Amino acid sequence: MATATSTATSVAAALLLSLLLARARGDDDYSGFVYAGCSQGRYASGTQYASDVDSVLTSVANSAPYSPYANFTSPTSNSVVGVYQCRSDLPASVCTGCVRSAISRLSSLCAWATGGAVQLRACFVRYGNDTFLGKQDTAVLFKKCGGSPGDAGGAAMRDSALGALVAAAAPAGGGYRAGGSGGVQAMSQCVGDLGAKACSDCVSAAAGQLKAGCGYATAGEVYLGKCYARFWGNGGGGFSSGAAGDAYGSGHRVSGNRFVLAVAGGFFTSLAYIFVLM
């Protein structure tokens, strides 16, 4: 009996360790799904439009190892546009893997759709034949707040950290901003087709959403049409630091425990969006 009990205990410990390791790997999943959307319009296989979509998305995938942002337009009259944006503080290898994962998601979720977009933890990819490139969009697509309970002092530090994002000088490239106040850190990322003022306006709108909607939560994030922002406490509460390596710099990752999903607004009017809480 002692041997059986010992064996059972060892198996249970091994299973627990496996679960903890799996959770840890999940925390580092920069390709984790946030949201996706697909247009109601469709195109047929073998058409010029299908060729243009393939060409644009291939260009997106091929560009990711070299830059955190790029956009491409097909050379035909269909004018299919593709754009991607990685978190520009992360290594090129992370950007490459995330973008390729996003394209794979688009292929499965938006098969034959004339337009589609997907946001993963570390990158955003969109294609279509509508005029979205370079246009501001502050519609709220995905928002969550949580972590361990906080207090008024923590909320004040959060507001200050988010304010630092808004006040930051326009980045020389990549649209990434980071700030902090006391025990709270914050970051934001704009899509690279926005100009400096439009990026600042988008970050300001995102910060306002988090300040108004997250109460005393110690972590939160909100994704708008052309930017997103996050905050987290240094002591945990849903976010923790993660090494990022070289190339695009270093940043943070999201563990996402005990969050409440809140979705508001439309997005791009031409797309019918799928919102999924993973």
From TrEMBL:
Signal peptide extent: 1-26
Record domain Gnk2-homologous: where: 31-132, 136-236
Membrane topology: Single-pass type I membrane protein
Cell compartments where the protein resides: Cell junction, Plasmodesma; Cell membrane
Keyword vocabulary terms for this entry: Cell junction, Cell membrane, Disulfide bond, Host-virus interaction, Membrane, Repeat, Signal, Transmembrane, Transmembrane helix, Transport
Transmembrane segments: 259-277
Coiled-coil residue spans: none
Name used for this protein in its record: Gnk2-homologous domain-containing protein
Taxonomic lineage of the native organism: Eukaryota, Viridiplantae, Streptophyta, Embryophyta, Tracheophyta
